[in-house]
Every structure is written in C-alpha cells, then in structure tokens.
Amino acid sequence: MAAKPRLTEEAARQLLVSAESSLDGLTPECLRAATDALNIFRGLGSEGLNGVHDALRVVVAFHRLKAAVEQRKPEEALLLASDELEHCRADGDRRGEASMLLALAEINMDRRGARKRAEALEAASAALVTFQEIRDQRLQARTYLILTNLYSKMQMPDEAENAAQSALCVFQALGDQMNQAKAFHGLALTMASRHRYADAAVHAEEARALFAQLGDVKMEAAELVSIGQWQLAAGKPGRAVASAEQALHLFREIGYGKGWQAKALSVLCQALAQCGRSAAAAKVAREQGGLFRDDGDLAGQVASQEIAAHAHLVSKHPERALRELQDAQQLIDGKGDPSQARLCRGEAASFLAGGDVAEAVRTLNRAVAIAKDVKDHVEESRAHRDLFDIHLDCGRFSAAGEAAARERAVAEAAEDRIGEAASCVRLAVALANGGDLVKSLALVEEALELSEAARDRRGKARALHVLSTIQRLDGNMDAALEASEQRLKLARDLGDLQLEAAAMQELAGLHRAEGNFSEARHLAMESRDLCRKSGDRHGLVNALVSLTELALAAETGDVKQSLLNPSKEAVAVAGKLGDGMLRARALYWRAHALGAVGRHPAARRIAHDAAELLTKLGDAEGRLRCLFLVAELYAAEGLKADALGVVQEVRLLAKSVRDTEAEYEVALLEEEVSRKESQPEPQATHATPQAATEKPPQAEARELPEVPVPKETSLDPQEVLKQLLQLVKEVTSSTDEIELDTQFVDAGMDSLSGVTLVTMMSREFGMSFPPSTVFDYPSVRALRDHLLREQQDEGLMLLPELNLSVLPRDRAMACNGTVQEPAVQRVRGSDLSTKLFIEKCAAAGRPVLLLDLVPAWPAYSQWRRPDGEPNFAKLAEDFQGVTGPVVDCGHGYGIQSWDVGDFFRWAARQGGDALYLKDWHLVNACRSLGLQVPYEAPGYLAAPVHDWLNLHMDKATGKDDYRFAYVGVAGTRTPLHHDVLFSHSWSANICGRKHWIFYPPEVSHKLLNSLGTAAESAQPQRRTSDWQQHFPGLQEAWEQRLEAFQEEGELMFVPSGWYHEVENLTVTISINHNWLNATNAQQVWQFLRSEWTSVREKIGDLQDTFDSEKDFLEQCQLLMRANCGLDISGWLELLTGAAEEAARLRADNPVGDELWVLEWVEERLRAVSESSLADAAATATQHSSKAAATLADALERLATWRKAAP
Asked: Which intervals carry biased composition (Low complexity) (predicted)?
C-alpha cells in the first residue's frame, strides 16, 4: 500500500515535465497536464507540497506566456499567483511563498514598465533569500537565471553576469545540463548587453553544444539564431551565415514554426547582405516564402517578403522592395493584422530610398493611423520616429519637433518613461536645430530626470550626449565637457565598449576644439583601440576620422602615421559597411589628408567621389562642403581658372540651400583666388584646405615635409571595365552577361576562382593585389573603382613586366616624420627566379613581402572557409591527437602542451584568453598522421641546396625542427627577438593579418641590456617604467624601425640578424620556416662561434671538476646544443650535407642561371667551411674532429665534380 502514493507522485512528476517541455506551444494539452499534476500533488497532502509549488509555477507561466502572445495584460497569471501567495503566507509555507514571488517576478519583468520591473527585482531577491535559507539549490539557481534576465533589462551588467555565473555553478554541481545551457545563454545575454558580441557568441556556442548533446534540436536551433545575431553584430557575417543556415535547416527538419524559422531566415539574409550577397539573400527569402506558403504559414510568408524587401533595399533596388511589401499587404488585406503598420513603415523606407520623400511621409502617416486603430503603441511610436528622422534630414525642424511631440504623447499614454525620455531628446534636437537652445536644454534636463526615474542608464547617456552638443553650440565648453565626461563614466559603468568608444570620440572633439590636442589624440586613439576590440566598425571609422582631423589641426611630424594611415583605413573600412553617409565622411577627410601632403590631384578626385555619393544620398549641404574643398585644392595647386569655376558652382549651391555662412566663405575664397596669379606649372604646396561651413580650430602655419610622388600612368576607366568583365567571364566560365553590380559569389565565383582572378588582374594591370581583394570589392564596379583608386590615390606606378613588381605600400618612418623610400617592399614571388631572389632579397639582407605564392597552396583553400575565416572544424578533425606548445601571451608567456585538435576547437570559440599555438611541427605532424603536407614553397625558399638547416635536421634526427605552423587569436604576439641561430625565416599567412616591426642589425645592440638580454618590446606603450635605466638605447632603435602589415596570402621574408616583434591583429594562421644557406652562413657561423666561447667562459671555473679537457669540451658542446639548438659538431655535419647536395646537383650538369646559382653557393659554402675547419673548435672533441674530417672529404669530392664539369 505504501508504493501507491509514490507511483502517483511519479505520474504527477511526468505530467509536470511534459507540461514544462511543451510550454512554448501553449496548447490546451499543456495546461491540462499541468493542472492534472497540480491536483495529484494536492491530493498527496504534505508529501506533495513541493510538487504543488512547482505545478503552480507552470500553470502561472502558461497564462503569462499566453497573454504575451495575445498582446494583453496577464490578468489570469497575476490573479492566480497573487492568490496563492496569500494562501502560502497564511499557511506559513515559505517555499510556496518564495515560488509565487518568483512567478510574480517573471510576470512583471517583461513589457510591464520600469516600476513593475523594479517590483519584479524586489520579489525575485526576496525569493532568493528564502531559497538560500531553506537550502533549495535548484530553485536558487532558477532564481539566479531570472535575476540574470532582470539585471540585463535594468542595465546592470555586472550584477547580471554574477547571477548567471552563480546559476551555472549550481547547475553544474547538480549535474543539470539543460539548465547549464540556459545559464550559458544568460551569460551570453550579459555580454551582448555590453555590446561584447564576440564573447556573447562564445557563451552561446557553449549553450548550443549542451543542447545538441542532450538531443534537444529545437533549443539547439534557437541558440544558433542567437549565435548568428551576435556574430552579425560582431562584424562576422560569414560566420553568421553558417549559424543561421544550420538553424533554419534544423527548424525545417523538425517542422517547428512559431516564428523561429522566420527569425533564422532574417539573420541569414542580413548576413548574406552584409557579405555583399544581397541578390542571394533575396533569392533565399523568396524560396523560403514558398515553403511557408506550402505550410499554410501566413505570418511566415509575410515575414519572408519583408526580409526579401530589406535585401533589395541593401542592393539599391527600392522598386523591388516596394513590390515585395505591397504583395505582403495583399496577403493580410482586411484581416486586421497588426503587421500592417510595420509593412507601411517598410514601404516608406522604400519610397525614401527611391527619392520620393512626400510619398514616404504619406505612407508613415498611414502607418500611424493603422497602429492607432489596433492600439499598437510600439508601432505608432516607431512611425512617429521615422517621420522625425525624415523631417530632420530635410531640414524641416518644426515638423520634426511635431513628430517628436506626438511620439512623446504616445509614450505618456502608455506610461513608458523610457520612451518618453527618448522622445524628449528628439524634440530637443529639433528645437536646437531650429535655434531655440533654451527650450532644448530644458527638454534634455527633463529627459535626464525621466531616465533617472526609469533607471535607464543608456537613455541617460543619450541625453548627456545631446546635452553636451547643445552646450557646445551655446558656447559653454565647460558644461559640454562635464556632460561628456558623465557620459563616459556611465559607459564604463555599463561595461559597454562601443558606448565608451563613442563617448571618448565626443570628448576628444571637445578637447580638440579647446586646443588640447594631446588629450584629444590620447582619447581618439583609445577610442580606436576599443572599437577594434569590440568589433565596432562604424565606430572605428569615426575614430580614424577623428584622428585625421586632429592631425590636420595639430602640429605633427609623422605625416603617414598621423594623416595618411588613419584616413586610408577609414575609407577602406567604411567601404565595406554599406553606409553611404559614413563612407562619404571618410572620403571627405581622406581628401583633406591627401591635400595636406601636396597630393592635390588624388585629393580632388576623392573629394569629387564624396560629392557624387552625397548627391545620390540627397545631402546637398554635404556636397557643398566637398566641392568647396575641391575649389581649395585647385587654388592650392595654383589652378586659378579651375578653382573659380568650382567656386561659382559652390556659390549657387550655397544659395539653393540657404547657407549664408557658406556663401560668405565662398566669397572670401573667390577673393583670395582672384588675387593670385595663375601658375601653369604648379608646385606642391602643403596648406591644409579648410571645408566650407566648418570652422576647425586655428593652428599656426607650418611646413609639412616634402612627399615624393611617383609619376603616374593613368588607367582608362572604360578600358578597365571592359578588361575586368572579360576576366570575370573567363574565371567563372559564364556565358551570361555579367552586370556591373552582380556579386561575384552570385556569378558562380568561389574562393579558388577568386584567387585566380586576383592573379590574372595582377598580370593584366601590372599591379599587385592581396588575395582578399575580390572579397573586399565583390562586384565588377566595386573592383574597377578600387583599382582606379589604388592606382591614383597611392601614386602607384604601373609596373614593368620585370623589375620585381615592387608595390611601395609600407614605408620607413624616420624620426623627423618624413616619408622615405619603400622599407618593406612587396614583390610578386612568381616573378622571382632563384638568382633574382639571391641578388635582390637574400643577399641584400632586407625584409621583403612576397605576393601570389601562398594562394596556390592547398592549405590556403583547405584551411579557410569561403568567407576567409579559419576552418577550425576541419583542422581540429585532421590534427586531433597531435600535441603542440601553446603560449599564454596574457600571462607571462607561459607554455603548456595541448592536443592541437582541442586548441583548434578552443580557437573557434575565441574564448577571451590570448593563447598562441607556436612552433608546432607541422610537417612532422602531417607525416605522423599520413597527411599530405599542405604547402610547397618555391625552390629558392625550400630546396635542399637553399635550406641547409632542415636538410640537416631531416638527415640527423628525422624531425623537422624548423618547419612550423603558428595559430593565434587577435592580440597574440611574439616579443622582440632575432630568429634562432641567426637564421633567415619566412612566414606565410594562410589567413589573418600581422603587424611586423623590424630593427636593422646596426641598431641591435641598442635593444639589449648590459647582460646582452633583449627588451620585451621597443614600442613606447610596451616599455617598462625603468627602461631608460636598463635599455638606454631603446628609443634610438625605435626611431630606426621598419613597420609592415602582412595580409592573408602574403609571405614575409625575414633576413638574418634582424630583431623583430610581431602581433596578430586578427585570428591568424601562418606557416613558418627557419633556414640558412650560402647567403647567411657566415653570420650563423659567427653566432655559433660566439656561443661556443660564451659557454666555455661561463663554466670555465668548473673545468677542474672534469676528468679531462676532452670531457669538459664535450660538456660545452652539450650545453651549447641545449642553448641554441646546434653545436660545433652539428654545424660541421650541416655543412657536409650542403656540400653533398651541391655535388649531387653538379652531377645533373646545370647550365645558365642554375649553374650561376650553384657556383655562387659553392663559393660561399667553401669559404664558410674553410673558416669553420680552421677554427680550434672544429677539433675540440672527438665527435667534432670526426665531423670535420667528413666535411673535408665532402668538400674534396665537390671540388672534383666542379673540375670535371664541362
């Protein structure tokens, strides 16, 4: 009889589990199962009390979720939870009371306003205290999950993260994997709330893995949607495509709808659009729409058409977007669907993109009316906001104010303090633009009070931003600075790197206006670094532009560093974002920078590009500023007639937009130009042109250094277009016409054919391009514009067919700031014979970047995904079980041995630590696993006669001790060093980007302390506080540095004796060799000789402890081999191997260049061998004496072969 209650309880528990798992379906069966479980538990009396609490929470959750779906107040849930709370209190049932408090917290934390959310926090906190007191760990952890959500919504990121971590710890202790996954998702939410999207994606991936392990396909797919959203926000659209595709596939596989397929489709299409594949996005949306139609899913159909419309807008086809949205309206016509207002807003955006502002306004007014009818205050507010934006952009400030006021009325009626504060800020902006600063200031203060009352710190930060701007306009710089500093503090409190970077940019602008250039530059650089860290590419462009503005306004000697580099990077990044206004801004300041260094033709062309772009965007005032800059540039070059012609155009434009200040500036410029005499042969000047309608701070006149401008050979745009179209058709084997804006991917181009196109372009146009060019500029038109811009903007000379195809991109930085001749040359590796490499690169002893070699390697195609990111999944699968050394760059460069497969899986998550897989013996790993070595370097880098070191290691040990792979996340680095044994090295980037800093051999001694130890870095920001005491020559060495940025698909040659430090700027995989041969053998021998002497001196005091001098010298050899990897005996054996290889080649009777190379090698091999054999070290031990004799014999045989040669 005792077993019956337990069986009944077990049945109730099963019903409850079934109800919980089907909550999202909100079916009658779900509610019935929860209610039946509740009744069974109640029938068990005190034994079923805990079950009653749990069942009640599920019943309340059902009513709460049902009300949310039906967009109504959760009255049933509130009534049930409140009644049961009173009963539990009356009965002294503490667990029941806490459970109902938790249920009320869940009800009040979503869509109930700030006051109810505060009540929810109070209830959840009280529940947590009770669960802790009664030691109910499971409900403690559930409460932590709810607090995570609450803290995130209340902008309390630190508290949210702590709650999520607490939940995770408890669930791990309980072995509850399902809730562990939910805790990981909570952690991801805390990262996303700080705009740390890459970290969010990592935690979400941990949640996804657990869901997959549990076999919960629905939860796995939902988590993939979140991962895709965060990857998209982190600027990783390629990864987001993969995540969203997998999510959509899983949802289709299990037939799960509920809007989740549409969410996955939305992320997928946004990601495709950001990859430059808008046509593919629209196609995918249409195909999925057909599947929704077949399933009878009307909401899915509508969503798919909205998604397709967005793709068309991105691809600049507003008419197609409008058709999609109008078709969607037809689907729901007359059904009273609340999405009608949202569709109207989409139609308005299409009209606006097509230039029909009036129709956009009419359509938005219709959206307002529809939203009012269905009492959708969210869509009504959004429509008012869209109207505000349109009126503000058109300069209709009164109408913008009216839209903001109506939005505020909606927020007040809905008791939405956060929305009310935001609308107050918008109203203030409209009034300030209309000239009423007093009222606008009052409104901003009101917004601050509303945000404070709603505990909305982000809203407060927005209001402070506007307050700072208005105070600046009002001339109150102290108040502006104070507001901006408060905003920065709020951003830091929130842990939001993007907001912090934006606040720093604003503060930098204020300091610049005050003439405090040092502080402004410091803030702008910090902002730039934060943007890079957080993946905020829009913010990065703004930070780079800010640095350019500073360089123009302040005294600076480092022209390229301060002017040209930031402005060039800003244009490159902005060009990939699809934001026309941002790109125009970057182009405008790039033109300023080029004008400042006397490159007026390139500056004018870029300013014209900006003007044309702004014309398309309908920004007449922006176009005015750009054309004013063009006129200044003509004037600076002495082209009076051209300058006056543009001045007339600017005057008419200024009148049309009623910009009296611009008209005044134009009149001043015209007067100044008219006074000058025409100069038919203008000399480069270095005055910085000033933009119309802007008044940058006045800086004293200065002379900027002369910049050598190579003579240009212009390309004809039409001819380039024709050639590119032909090349693309050849590569894709297409018989169809290729449209100028067709994305290469949509034309059938994959990564391999993309590399082929780059190679063909290099040959066709005599210029060098990185392998990523076709991904960065993914259509014929974009590629044509880039090619012309590179040729003109950088002053690139069209290269002769020979002459090594040097591309002068990286230049030496002298301490006086002048830009000198190319420092690290970029040379097409395919143009090099062994003879040319010896003469121009190795013997010259300077770093060189070799292009177009790496893309042909199997590793380049197999180790990378189509989006260019590392294929860590394949690498993990291929190399599981092989070990390699992993360096922790964030904690003292400690080394641990990892399973390489595990490291690749860790790297795929990029889990925050700065771990670097270094000196991993790749060739040895491939041989041990039976894999093909995935690369083949050209003979001048790897043939045995040119790679004596690895030839020796293969023969002596059977190991490839100096052929490595390196894999590191962004921020990993190798400190200052020279390569092992004073060898040459080369490093080939399979993917990613590296920053190299080289120090010439003549300053090596300045990098060392009195003990001969090198500093960790010579970079000013990395030096220790006492560097002047220990490394007094460090600054002098720093001023003689060479810097270069190595892109994917490029190979860096590092000659002997060059100290260098390297940092990975992105996730990077490289293949590296250390090697030595005839070009550097004498240097290596001198290094080994000094090592031999050093070892003997260091342990000389111990010589008496050995039985004989021979034993002592043997110990010296052993220590030398341990210290530097090679002893004297090994060196002599290495030379023997080289002599034998040279003799083998002699037997092949080489002719021409091959004979020249071999004789060149033999001559230097004999010289270094004779020098080594003549040294006493060669016969110091029995082993070395034997090696010396063998070397002498090998040299004799080589001489015999040489004499016998015809």
From this structure: 680-694
